[in-house]
FAD-dependent oxidoreductase
Amino acid sequence: MHKKSEQEAYWRLTAKLPDHPPLSESRETDVVVVGGGIAGITTAYLLCQKGVRVTVVEASEIVSGTTGHTTAKITAQHGAIYDELLHHFGLEGARSFYEKNQQAIDWIRNTVSQKQWECDFETQDAWIYADSEATIQQLEKEQHAYDKLDIPYKHASKLPFDIHCDGALIMPNQAQFHPTRYISAMVEEIVEMGGKLHEQTKAVDIQEGQEIQVTMENGHVLTCQHVVVASHFPFYDGMGLYFAKMKPERSYLMAGHWKEKDPGGMYISIDQTVRSIRFFSMDGSRGILVGGEPHSTGQGEPTDHHFDVLQKFTSTHLGKVDFTYRWSSQDYTTLDKLPYIGAISNRHPRILVATGFRKWGMTQGTMAAHLISERILGTSTPSSDLFDPSRFHADPALKKVISINSDVVKHFVKSKLEIPVITLKQLPLGAGAHVNWNGQQIGAYKDESGNVHAVDTTCTHLGCSVNWNSSEKSWDCPCHGSRFTIKGEILEGPAMKPLEVIKTDGCEG
Ligand SMILES: Cc1cc2nc3c(=O)[nH]c(=O)nc-3n(C[C@H](O)[C@H](O)[C@H](O)COP(=O)(O)OP(=O)(O)OC[C@H]3O[C@@H](n4cnc5c(N)ncnc54)[C@H](O)[C@@H]3O)c2cc1C
């Protein structure tokens, strides 16, 4: 169990997570899974069930990534997406996506029920709702797509809250759970089946010959036949150019006790600001989760602004809630909004990747685990081609690749031209910012005792300038989503090297 910190997720503070020792030797295994989130752990579980020797390596702790910071709705209703998928992937592609997600829900439901895993699993309806002229048109198109795709749904004209609603589509029989308790139960079985897990073990390189060698930061090497890169952002690119074809986006979540009657259901608006609501079992009573406020990583308003907006939304439309937990997290969206699942690139058919879940990774991470384990076991079906990371559909992919990368250029150029307005001396206690230090632009955080932690703000990935994230006290890159601690250490994203530390040695410039 983790100690409560102001910005830690409810899921991380309320589940028992056994420790697993770091890898302390080089050895052989059949499959190496890199990453202890839902995608990696489910893959390991499925392979262990088939008698494959699996070793999972996790840079930090199991479920410390996005899976431990999610909303944990388990649904095939990923916002309003099916009209768009229908246009870009046709009837067969869009239907296959829906069916694979629905199968993932059924698999989770059956597994939890058969194994009697205690993870607060609840069947719930998923709602998307429109609250404006523009979104009602989108909702109508979505309903039309549901009809074409034979997706079961109900229509509603209002919500069980005081929120303006021009119409809603309800996908029945979806679900929700406590993600950390779910993964924890799965991990226990992986260990019982002989799977090996190593925390605090960061994979840094892959060499492919007749066998594949995965090298860890501590120098130990795992030799294997297949590698599954389930590190959220792929830690190894394999010439797949993932940084140029995925966009990171952060969102905010708040959780607290819910004293009113629970109306049931999981709700999400289809406007740009996104309001996500669901109820859950919290310390023997009911809790409410309210989320939203998405923005590109490293580009949002100060963090407190987003939490203030969500708090105000809640008190205006839902009632008074004392939010005792608040956190934020990020996920990646691909060029065409379908995940990348399969060979990391055409050159590396035995290095498999699962990423780009667009904030819907409970089903897509589970679906990826099935597709990848089937591929390793040699039982794949052609439907997995839909998610092949090497696919390229000109529309909308081309437009997106240009827009993602012109955004990168904007941040790259802007960062080099701006001079910080405050000096290191003027930086208040407990604050971080770009500061002017002896005429040089640096990033500095001054702790409550006045100690300064300074870094070169040039992201070590591709040279954009990182921005201060006041909530997580981290430096976040607006270009490709790499994130660093106040000491410059890597937290997540594509960067492989820490930020350069600048020694100010008590000199405030
Ligand atoms: C705010 C928010 C709300 C969301 N809500 C929902 C929801 O309601 N429903 C839904 O379906 N999805 C939701 N999602 C999306 C979902 O949480 C993610 O898609 C999913 O958790 C990603 O799982 P993962 O296994 O790919 O990555 P992660 O859970 O991030 O796991 C990857 C792991 O790899 C480790 N790692 C990284 N690099 C290395 C390395 N080099 N070596 C070893 N280990 C490494 C990391 O430490 C991490 O633990 C939400 C996402 C966000 C941001």
